[in-house]
Each structure stands twice: as structure tokens, then as C-alpha cells.
Design a protein that fits this description.
Order of helices and strands: HHHHHHH
Oligomer: single chain
Structural class: mainly alpha
Distance between the termini: 39 Å
Number of helices: 7
Strand content: under 5%
Number of strands: 0
Helix content: over 70%
């Protein structure tokens, strides 16, 4: 077996790729014909989840700064805590929910909603808090704003320090879970509209023209 049957233009892999690409083109064409509200939801809805993630990052940053008595380098710590969670949440949601949905690879509503909720909880809620901890720990050590323990008590110290922050941020994490669930459900609803138009179209070739 030379493998030529897998590399030629008529190979199963090539046909599968072309069919998937054609389906994505049809889905995108129908999406562009939907009402503006649906288009905006699909194209920009994930930014709302990402913006909430930025707020979680800024809130967690302020909580840790207060606990550790950090008074300097506010902008230096605030900027990455706003930007990194935003970009991370938008990118992860795009890769695991929106792109699979509108490429036809994710047809299960429950799967899409669960993915949205998990992304909201982990990337949109917990990740900013975890990111704020080492950020402010380094600032506290640099400016000696709070007495830090030795290596033998380091883990216990940071667990004790982080507990009140996680308690305060629990509402934000819950909001992110609900937002992720809602956003994924709405995106799946738009995807169902697209499928219905594809199925009821009398001349599918017109969609590909």
C-alpha cells in the first residue's frame, strides 16, 4: 500500500474536507441572511462573557491587593488582569463552542450548553482569581507590603489568603456559569434556525451560488 489513495484529490479524506468546507460556507451564508440581532449574538456574544471575565479579574486583583496591603503598581497589576482573562475567555469559547457549532461539528444542545457553562466557570470565573494570586504575591514580595512566611508555611499562608477571595468571588463565578449556559443555548438556537432554513430550502444549490 503506497498511501496514494489517501493523498489524491479523490481520497476519502479530501472529499470529507471538501464537504465540511462546503457545509461551513452554506451555514455562513445563511447566518449572514439572518436578522441583525442573531448575527450580532453569534459574532459578538462571546465578548460579553469575556468582559465579565475581565471584571472578575479586576475584582480579584483588588481583593488580593487589599489583603496583602499592596498600594503601588496599581496599573501594572490591573492591566493584565483585565486583558488576559478577556482574551482567554473569548478564545476558549470560540474554539470549543462557537466554531464547532457553526461548522456543523457540534449538534448536541446539551453538549454545547455544558461546554458554555464550564468555560464560564473555569476560564471566565476561576481562572482570573487564580491569575490574580501570583500577580499580587510577586508585588507583595517586591514592595514588602505584607510579611510573607518561610517556605515551610508558604502553602498554608496562600491557602488562608485565597479563601476569603474565593468566597467573595463565588457570586461572580456563578454569574459566569449562568452567562456561559445562556450564551451557548442562544448560539445553539441560532444554529437550529440555520439548519431549519437549510432543510426547508427548495434549491440548496442557490445557497452555494
Amino acid at each position: 500500500m503506497t498511501g496514494g489513495e489517501f493523498l489524491g484529490p479523490d481520497s476519502p479524506q479530501q472529499r470529507l474536507y471538501l464537504e465540511r468546507f462546503k457545509r461551513m460556507e452554506v451555514i455562513q451564508k445563511i447566518l449572514n441572511e439572518l436578522p441583525k440581532a442573531d448575527q450580532n449574538l453569534c459574532n459578538h456574544g462571546s465578548y460579553f462573557l469575556a468582559a465579565n471575565s475581565s471584571l472578575c479579574g479586576l475584582a480579584a486583583n483588588n481583593f488580593f491587593r487589599s489583603i496583602l496591603h499592596v498600594r503601588r503598581a496599581f496599573f501594572v497589576s490591573a492591566l493584565p488582569m483585565a486583558v488576559i482573562p478577556f482574551l482567554s475567555t473569548a478564545a476558549v469559547y470560540e474554539v470549543f463552542v462557537r466554531e464547532p457549532l457553526f461548522s456543523g461539528d457540534l449538534n448536541c444542545e446539551v453538549c454545547a450548553v455544558v461546554r458554555g457553562g464550564l468555560i464560564g466557570a473555569v476560564v471566565g470565573g476561576l481562572y482570573p482569581v487564580l491569575l490574580a494570586l501570583p500577580m499580587n504575591a510577586s508585588l507583595a514580595a517586591r514592595y514588602s507590603s505584607s510579611p510573607l512566611p518561610g517556605k515551610e508555611n508558604l502553602l498554608r499562608f496562600w491557602l488562608t489568603t485565597a479563601q476569603p477571595v474565593f468566597r467573595k468571588m463565588s457570586l461572580g463565578v456563578l454569574i459566569q456559569v449562568v452567562t456561559g449556559l445562556y450564551l451557548a443555548a442562544k448560539h445553539h438556537g441560532v444554529y437550529i434556525k440555520i439548519l431549519q432554513q437549510m432543510n426547508t430550502s427548495r434549491d440548496p444549490e442557490e445557497l452555494e451560488a
